[in-house]
Design brief:
Largest sheet: 8 strands, mixed, barrel
Keywords: Membrane, Transmembrane, Transmembrane helix
Structural class: alpha+beta
Number of strands: 26
Strand order of the largest sheet: 18-19-21-22-23-24-25-26
Radius of gyration: 57 Å
Shape: elongated
Protein name: Bifunctional diguanylate cyclase/phosphodiesterase
InterPro entries: Biofilm_reg_signaling, EAL_dom, EAL_sf, GGDEF_dom, Nucleotide_cyclase, PAC, PAS, PAS-assoc_C
Helix content: 40-55%
Distance between the termini: 201 Å
Length: 740
């Protein structure tokens, strides 16, 4: 071969020139060039292979880095022998760098103190070969000082000559969001376990997938009995669940109250609600239902409704239930009759025997009527001593009157309460639908009107409502409104009627009388407005106005030297029963600066007999103030002499009816008796309504001291009475001279 010969040739010694340079033979130059080129080619090829290897290595490292970055993991490499820890930075939130990798674990300073012992034990067990891999979840400190939950996994990859761990590599995964989700799910799970309502999850075909513990306590069915079984409502048809499913898909929820059966067969009331559970794509995956046991709440509601519709004293249906029933009958246009009644003079029973006994009487009456078959389930208590009976589907007069008579008969039977035998009566007003009213309010209003007319006609009777009653009721309402307007506009004034000494003919006093004078309707008769004012309570304000104006007028006349006697002012029954009456009178006297000696208060016999003991106490307080007291209309009431002698009176007034009756011997004897009684009690006697000289002479013979009436003067306005006083002052010297 030529190649070895060429090599030998090249290796043979070369001739050396005298100058020291090696002499190369011309034929060797091509050979050297070829070899040089070949060496360069080989070096280039080797360099290319190294570059391709480096590129593949870089690509592999890039893929690994990208994979770690994509997975959210961080790669770590721990040289145990050298105590060096390498950690890649693939996280967006970098971790705090360890201070000293010689510590154990190498990132000890970054681990949360509460997790350190657990992580240390897990690492030691793996390094000593007890566990095949190292795995631990713990909190680690980030570069911003926050604590992050991480999952740390690793494995020993190299042992030293003694078999000890020399190198360990692994990954660190950020599981903060996963941990928060886990805690949130755990919280939800605990809530479901501890919630008092039953919760169940089922698929869209109502197959139960999960229930909470409360489900068993409410329904009595445990988890194993219902899991993977169809949810059922045994008290409802199968189509009920289909309707729920359809509503769920249409509206997204369903709720309602149902009856459910427990495992032991007990029926209970529940509130059931269904909602949809959707996946991330919005597709319906499951239904979740909540069952709340509302049996106790329903029982309480029923009891509250019963209490709301029941009178607490008598146990009868109350006014609210009555109104609802009447409204329903009118709405359905059912013919019916309404009987409204109350007890006559029930207030006197309360005042004399006490409210407790009065309440017992009402209870006994309700019990008696409720047990009577004709009134059962028809009787209502409207309030106080007022009751109502509703008769449905009848407008038969005979049936209604028969029932009204039976009602009166039952009420009239005596009651024996606390050793008292109580005989009571009642007044009944009757209306019929639709004849007497087209709405519940009109029916009740007209029934009340009829009842009041029955009471005014003597009580213990029944009356049907008619149009004339309605007209009277309308007129009464008009008067009430007129009084209200009159009080506001000061239309009430005071007139005065003189009281004259029967012997001397001189003025000794006067009576103040209220007058209601309006710009449009003129003078309103006291007989028209006084009863309405008494009933509505407006008499209190009227009485205060009259007393104030009277005291001011009298004080002015006294200051003018025209008058030195007393003025009599009537007190209504409502005024007299005011708890602050004495204080009100004190205030008026103080404002007007009128001495109490000049004031006399007239009280009717009927007023003081409503509550004699209270009346005596009030009268004593008034007398202690220096105010004189007169009993008006004596003989028209029912006072006894036993009470009369206890009343701290100054004056007794004979009613006009007795004065008018003196034309007969019996009438004169009656007046004589009254005067004798008054004188025996050291009372002054005043005769009212004296109109003739004959009446004056008769009263003078009977020793009556003072007269009042048209014989001397009609009631006069304040201006007219001032003129009358001036006239009397001028006449007084003449009368004195005549008497002398």
């Amino acid at each position: 071969m030529k190649f070895p010969s060429l090599v030998l040739l090249l290796l043979s010694p070369l001739p050396v020139l005298a100058s020291g340079w090696v002499l190369i033979q011309p034929y060797l130059l091509p050979v050297v060039s070829v070899l040089s080129i070949m060496a360069l080619v080989l070096a280039h090829l080797s360099l290319l292979r190294m570059r391709r290897y480096q590129l593949r290595l870089e690509q592999s490292e890039e893929r690994l880095r990208l994979s770690l970055w994509g997975s959210g993991d961080e790669l770590w490499d721990w040289d145990i022998e050298q105590g060096q820890l390498y950690r890649s930075s693939s996280w967006h939130q970098p971790l705090e760098q360890p201070g000293d990798a010689q510590q154990f674990p190498p990132n000890r300073s970054e681990i949360h103190p509460q997790d350190l012992d657990r992580v240390t034990r897990a690492l030691e067990q793996h390094i000593h070969g007890i566990t095949p891999i190292f795995e631990a979840s713990y909190r680690i400190k980030a570069a911003d000082g926050q604590w992050l939950w991480v999952l740390d996994r690793g494995k020993v990859v190299h042992l030293d000559e003694e078999g000890k761990a020399a190198r360990m590599t692994g990954t660190l995964k950020n599981i903060q969001q996963l941990k928060e989700t886990e805690e949130r799910l755990g919280l939800f799970a605990r809530c479901l376990e501890n919630i008092s309502d039953a919760v169940l999850v089922c698929d869209t075909n109502f197959v139960v997938m999960e229930v909470n513990p409360a489900y068993q306590s409410i329904t009595g069915k445990n988890r194993e009995q219902v899991l993977h079984h169809l949810f059922e409502l045994p008290l409802y048809p199968a189509r009920f669940l289909h309707e729920i499913r359809q509503t769920l898909f249409e509206q997204g929820y369903w709720s309602g109250e149902i009856e459910e059966k427990r495992l032991n067969g007990e029926i209970f009331q529940a509130e059931l609600s269904f909602d949809l559970i959707r996946d991330e794509e919005g597709m319906v995956q499951q239904f979740v239902a909540v069952i709340s046991d509302i049996s106790e709440r329903k029982r309480r509601e029923a009891e509250l409704n019963r209490l709301a519709d029941t009178d607490t004293l008598t146990g009868l249906p109350n006014r609210s239930r009555f109104s609802n029933h009447l409204t329903q009958l009118v709405k359905e246009q059912v013919p019916h009759a309404l009987l409204v009644f109350d007890l006559d003079n029930f207030k006197k029973i309360n005042d004399s025997l006490g409210h407790e006994l009065g309440d017992t009487l009402l209870c006994r009456l309700a019990e008696r009527l409720s047990h009577f078959i004709r009134f059962k389930a028809k009787l209502y208590r409207l309030g106080g001593d007022e009751f109502a009976v509703v008769l449905e589907n009848t407008n038969d007069i005979h049936s209604i009157t028969s029932l009204a008579k039976e009602l009166l008969k039952q009420i009239n039977q005596p009651f024996f309460i606390e050793q008292h035998e109580l005989a009571i009566t009642s007044s009944i007003g009757i209306v019929m639908y639709p004849e007497d009213g087209l709405d519940p309010q009109a029916l009740l209003r007209n029934a009340d009107t009829a009842m009041y007319h029955a009471k005014n006609e003597g009580a213990n009777r029944y009356l049907f409502f008619n149009d004339s009653m309605n007209k009277l009721a309308v007129k009464r309402l008009q008067v009430e409104n007129l009084i209200r307007h009159g009080l506001k506009e000061d239309y009430f004034s005071v007139f005065y009627q003189p009281k004259m000494d029967i012997v001397t003919g001189q003025l000794v006093g006067m009576e103040a009388l209220v007058r209601f004078i309006t710009p449009k309707k003129g003078v309103i008769s006291p007989a028209s407005f006084i009863p309405v004012a008494e009933e509505t309570g407006q008499i209190l304000e009227i009485g205060e106005v009259v007393l104030q104006k009277t005291c001011e007028d009298v004080k002015r006349w006294i200051d003018q030297g025209l008058f030195h006697g007393r003025v009599a002012v009537n007190l209504s029954a409502k005024q007299f029963m005011l708890p602050f009456l004495c204080e009100q009178i004190d205030d008026i006297l103080q404002r007007s600066e009128l001495p109490s000696y000049h004031l006399e208060l007239e009280i009717t016999e009927g007023t003081v007999m409503q509550s004699p003991k209270l009346a005596i106490d009030t009268m004593k307080k008034l007398r202690a103030r220096g105010i004189h007291l007169a009993m008006d209309d004596f003989g028209t009431g029912y006072s006894s002499l036993a009470y009369l002698k206890q009343f701290p009176l100054n004056t007794l007034k004979i009613d006009k009816a007795f004065v008018d009756d003196m034309t007969s011997a019996r009438g004169r004897n009656m007046v004589d008796t009254i005067v004798t009684i008054a004188h025996n009690l050291n009372l002054t006697v005043v005769a009212e309504g004296v109109e003739t000289a004959e009446q004056l002479q008769q009263l003078k013979q009977l020793r009556c001291e003072i007269l009042q009436g048209y014989y001397y003067s009609k009631p006069l306005s304040a201006a007219e009475f001032a003129a009358f006083l001036k006239q009397q002052k001028q006449l007084k010297p003449k009368l004195t001279a005549v008497q002398a």
